[in-house]
């Protein structure tokens, strides 16, 4: 790290900000970009799924994975209603509705059919 780095401290004397020369910033930014690329490549190689932050937040918060994923997919497939998902997967619309509301859990066989229709892993739907 360049010796021209300036540390800005908070009222307690703890480091709060660092001011770095532009060249150092560019090196850090480029390294971070490379890390993001490598992480994405690793996820892809392991077949890990990646979701937009808003989708991930809803999943972590405990929302129905089926509902969250269907609504996310609906952004690119506007006709992806529960009825269309039922038709695509062979899973009853009433059962899909119950899963999305949290009234019933998703069974393994239904999860397999729904995951195939939504192009996600079975594990994602069974979170």
Task: Explain the overall architecture.
14% of the residues are buried. The chain has 2 domains: 6-46; 53-125, Orthogonal Bundle (434 Repressor (Amino-terminal Domain)), CATH 1.10.260.40. The protein is built from 7 helices and 2 strands. The two termini are 43 Å apart. With 127 residues, it is mainly α. Helices cover 59% and strands 7% of the residues. The model has no long low-confidence stretch (mean pLDDT 84). Strands 1-2 form a two-stranded antiparallel sheet.
Helix content: 55-70%
Mean pLDDT over all positions? 84
Shape: elongated
As a percent range, the share of strand residues is 5-15%
The appropriate CATH architecture of the largest domain is Orthogonal Bundle
Poorly predicted spans: none
| C-alpha end-to-end distance | 43 Å
Helix and strand sequence: EEHHHHHHH
Q: Provide the CATH superfamily of the largest domain.
A: lambda repressor-like DNA-binding domains
Per DSSP, the total helix count is 7
Main sheet: which strands, in order across? Answer: 1-2
Number of strands: 2
Number of domains: 2
Radius of gyration: 22 Å
CATH topology of the largest domain: 434 Repressor (Amino-terminal Domain)
CATH class of the largest domain: Mainly Alpha
Summarize the structure.
With 127 residues, this protein is mainly α.
Question: What's the arrangement of secondary structure elements?
Answer:
Elements: E1 6-9, E2 15-19, H1 22-46, H2 53-60, H3 65-74, H4 82-89, H5 93-101, H6 108-118, H7 122-125
Antiparallel strand pairs: 1-2
Helix pairs in contact: 3-5, 4-6
